[in-house]
Amino acid sequence: ALGLGGVVAFVTGSVILLDEGNLGISLPLIIGTALLSVGFFLWVMGRMLRFRRRRAVTGREELLDAVAEAMEDFEREGRVRVHSESWRAVTDKPVHKGQKLRIRNMRGLVLEVTPDNQSVIEGGH
């Protein structure tokens, strides 16, 4: 809004100067500068919207729905590896070492995981 308001103020001020004899600004210069400014602001807004839609790459949001790998066999609680880090995890189904798991939630430093049916399970488990 401020960018477009600035362009409107620039064009209005420039048009007012068209009437002055010795301070006149050429009309093609006004139009070219205004179009260039509007194009720049639209490009910046498009980039900002694209950045806003990107998925988080750090923190809790990045871990949710990520794939982890079981580091050991466990029934309820055990260790999993996510992005080269070891995490404590809980599940409601038995897990085998090397099995791919999907992270569903995070409570503190404990991940809630479920077996991932979409990933290939290594080791034949």
Q: Key features?
A:
3 helices; 125 residues; alpha+beta; disordered C terminus; five-stranded mixed β-barrel; 24% strand
Structural class: alpha+beta
Distance between the termini: 57 Å
In what range is the share of β-strand residues? Answer: 15-25%
> What is the overall shape?
rod-shaped
- Biggest β-sheet: count, sense, barrel? 5 strands, mixed, barrel
What is the radius of gyration computed over CA atoms, rounded to a whole number of angstroms? 29 Å
Indicate the percent of residues in helices.
Answer: 25-40%
Q: Biggest sheet, strands in spatial order? A: 1-2-3-5-4
DSSP summary, beta strand count: 5
Q: Helices and strands, in N-to-C order?
A: HHHEEEEE
- Number of helices, counting only DSSP H or I runs of 4 residues or more: 3
Overall mean pLDDT: 84
Low-confidence stretches: 120-125
SSE layout:
Blueprint: H1 2-18, H2 27-53, H3 59-63, E1 67-70, E2 77-82, E3 85-90, E4 100-107, E5 110-115
Parallel strand pairs: 3-5
Antiparallel strand pairs: 1-2, 1-4, 2-3, 4-5
In short:
By secondary structure, this protein is an alpha+beta fold.
What does this 3D model show about the protein?
By secondary structure, the chain is α+β, with helices and mostly antiparallel strands. It is built from three helices and five strands. It has a five-stranded mixed barrel. Strand 4 (100-107) and strand 5 form a beta hairpin. Helix 1 (2-18) packs antiparallel against helix 2 (27-53). The longest helix is centred in the first third of the chain and has 27 residues, at 27-53. Mean pLDDT is 84; it is low at 120-125.
